[in-house]
Write a structure and sequence with these properties.
2 copies of one chain form a homodimer.
Chain A lengths: L1 H7 L3 E5 L8 H11 L5 E5 L7 E2 L2 E4 L11 E4 L3 H14 L3 E4 L5 H22 L2 E3 L5 E4 L4 E2 L13 E5 L2 H14 L3 E6 L8 H10 L5 E6 L5 H10 L4 E5 L4 H11 L6 H11 L2 E2 L3 H12 L9 E5 L2 H13 L9 H10 L10 E2 L3 H4 L2 H11 L6 E5 L5 H12 L6 E5 L6 H12 L4 E3 L1 H25 L1
Parallel strand pairs in A: 1-2, 1-5, 2-4, 5-6, 6-7, 10-11, 10-12, 12-13, 13-14, 15-16, 15-17, 17-18, 18-19
Antiparallel strand pairs in A: 3-4, 8-9, 8-11
Amino acid sequence: MRGFKSLFHPSSIAVVGASTNSAKLGHAIVRSLCALGYRGRVYAVNPKLAGQKLLGCEAYAKVSDIPDELDLAIVSVGAASSIQVLRECAARGVKSAVVLSAGFSESFGDEGRRMELEIRRIAEESGMAVVGPNCQGIVSVSEGIYTFPEIEACGGVGEISAILHSGSLTAALVSIANKRGFYLNKAVSTGNEAASTLNDFLEYFLEDPETKVIALYIEQVRDGRRFMELCKSAGKPIVALKVGRSEAGRLAAKSHTAALAGSIEVWNAVCRQAGVIQASTFEELYDLSMALAAPMQPRGNRVGIVTSPGGPSVIAADMCGELGLAVPRLSRNTVEELRRVLPSYAAVANPVDMTASALEDLSLYRQVLSIVASDGNVDALLVIALLMNHSTIARAIAEAAREIDKPIVVVWMSFFREDDLLEAVKILGERRIPNYFGPERAVKAISSMVQQARYADRKRMLRR
Amino acid sequence: MRGFKSLFHPSSIAVVGASTNSAKLGHAIVRSLCALGYRGRVYAVNPKLAGQKLLGCEAYAKVSDIPDELDLAIVSVGAASSIQVLRECAARGVKSAVVLSAGFSESFGDEGRRMELEIRRIAEESGMAVVGPNCQGIVSVSEGIYTFPEIEACGGVGEISAILHSGSLTAALVSIANKRGFYLNKAVSTGNEAASTLNDFLEYFLEDPETKVIALYIEQVRDGRRFMELCKSAGKPIVALKVGRSEAGRLAAKSHTAALAGSIEVWNAVCRQAGVIQASTFEELYDLSMALAAPMQPRGNRVGIVTSPGGPSVIAADMCGELGLAVPRLSRNTVEELRRVLPSYAAVANPVDMTASALEDLSLYRQVLSIVASDGNVDALLVIALLMNHSTIARAIAEAAREIDKPIVVVWMSFFREDDLLEAVKILGERRIPNYFGPERAVKAISSMVQQARYADRKRMLRR
């Protein structure tokens, strides 16, 4: 595991296959490292550039020419050459490597597998941590490392770390987290897993103090027993999206990362037994990770719904019931207090309908949230915002949340990210208040929080 | 039904309860009518404004003072007063009315129901079409009519018409359609349905030549038998989101529009028998309506997937299999042609992976789509776009689509609507090419197209 420390927190990086051609990946990675805040030492490796500089970095013909200790080599050369480069890295004592090159078992079957075995042998003999091949590498937000072209740096360091069998989904996840303001900590696209596997990263993230929630996109679990043991012992939430629910998906996974996706029935059983939260779509993988990374978690399944628009609150209540969450009656005291601040025609049952008067007086959000939160029958609050004034509402909710010791989950009913809504989403995200587009996604998020609380209880009992 | 023509295509409108106070609904509606392109005659009704003008409209004390024929009265006064206003409208020969006022059976039980019966009596005796009460009224895009505050006019006239038991969801639907460029035709928020019901509007939209697809958000079907007959005989697709899947939802619906939501098992059976496409979330209601309003519909269930990012295509293929869509092998001829235009390491099975070379050469989209579309094994194309260059890709796909006589459905993997992506979405929407955020939603859309084709076949057989 020592190699992983160097992988995510390197003091020096060599980019092998660095290029002056700005359309090449070997160029884009040097550019990303320079532009997105990495403060360690970066070296470019390319025989044609030896003695010159690339984007301000010293260039060398070979890894072995670099007069510095190397924590990480990022390898972007042809498949066959990448093996030779790894040998040089191992000989030079490089601590970790990311092999971006494709053209292994995913394209060339047995011949590709032979090359992957060679990569594994090099990794095992040298102790070097090797990611890939056929991957897009890593993200380490606190270090400013993103081995992806055309990506934006996270606006802050979060507590969600992700392991994905897809480079493009890794990039998509970074992009989602950035816009939503509930940031990532680390991410790794593991590709064909010749040496380091999903299980290895899972073990590392489980012990990583910077990681609070682990998100997984899985095409194949290569050692199911170990995966199960790791998840069972996990002291933090694990959310997973797994493909292979159909034969068409299993075939596509095989062509993508040479994965053998396995049976979905087995997978479902593993999740139940090992306490893994399942996401059903890619967006949900982030949605649920956000919910589980929130500082406030519910102690029970009773949801207080506070709304201004009517229809969405009906959908929310309906889905709560469907997912086993309660929408309890509020106590007499709560109802009396609500009557004092809301108009006479407002519904003060649960859902509590602030009606259009919330439009005229946004302070209602704060008052009503405080009243409902103090009800002993309520474990979590679901707040449905108006279709307008998003950022003002976000600030009012964030203000209210400071005095409330129960989780608040917010629903936007505008599905498009106009500037004001984007700002609102970020305001809540950066305050670590989970917020979603549409009531269904928010209720699903609360339900995952409740499920995780049950998993955590069970795991604590088993550990005793 | 004659009243409905006046409702959606009025030559003259009276806004009763028009106000100079810009925070009031009675003001916002006059403003909407003036600002969003309505070209008929608008009159403001308010005793305090008689003889004056409001936002350029002549104001009168009473409806009966207006020296003009009135097609539509929009009533925004207190619940009790609204009945008196309706009586005046009926006496005056007004052809249709929308009662926005709340405070009926949803809040006051029997007393509210008594008032609703009175509304119904007035409507039946006079032949006036009455929408509401406790609703937010109507949208008629071709007329520039939106009885909603703070809403933007549709950028074009579409073919989707919607009936909703929620005003805020009606407004949200308009907003979604506007941003996605695949526009609405008409919409109505039916509220407590004292007189005109969901079934009445359904019947009207089924015969309306401007409406191609009907979208429904339902809290209660008040006459199940008639609903069933209407759907069974429908010559166009009907997509519905129904609440009442849980007791919590049924209670919330009752407090919202006094609805009795009924059993979900019965509802599911009705949908199967009557050929109604079910949406599982509010966003999906629009997603599927968009798919079914597209000019190209598939003749079978075989999907050709064309991608550049790997992971999303695996998710797409997996979900195809799960929803009963085939991801067939492509013919030898197709594979040979693909080999000629794609790099040697590209996967030319199905999914067809254009790899990162699509980044360097966007004309690949057009070439590859044409090749795959001409394969006899393929009924529909699913195209997964890169994470960047969205609007350029949208144009390339729109260009390719002109020569292709099979449906094309596009997947965006950026989940946030940066300007370039917003533009791309609109380019495709306005060309009526369905496009979605994430592979899951797109596959669901294709699956609804295939399901609708089967429903349509069955209905044709039954009609013979």
